[in-house]
Amino acid sequence: MSIIVNLDVMLAMRKMRAKSLAEQVGITEQNISLLRSGKVKGVRFDTLEKICAALECQPGDLLEFKPDVDTE
């Protein structure tokens, strides 16, 4: 099972840079980069809430579930 992070898509749709988002959310640009790459194990709800507010989106716009394909 995989969770796909679509933060890049939302940033592009809103024509916003990661640096601006980081400033609005109150986290480092490095943490935004880690979120964008999907290299995080979790995200705090308050951080997710701030990201959604800044991007005017829903959590489901940022996160997508894709089940692994069984190859037997």
UniProtKB/TrEMBL annotation:
<protein>
    <submittedName>
        <fullName>Cro/Cl family transcriptional regulator</fullName>
    </submittedName>
</protein>
<dbReference type="Pfam" id="PF13443">
    <property type="entry name" value="HTH_26"/>
</dbReference>
<dbReference type="GO" id="GO:0003677">
    <property type="term" value="F:DNA binding"/>
</dbReference>
<feature type="domain" description="HTH cro/C1-type">
    <location>
        <begin position="14"/>
        <end position="62"/>
    </location>
</feature>
<dbReference type="InterPro" id="IPR010982">
    <property type="entry name" value="Lambda_DNA-bd_dom_sf"/>
</dbReference>
<dbReference type="InterPro" id="IPR001387">
    <property type="entry name" value="Cro/C1-type_HTH"/>
</dbReference>
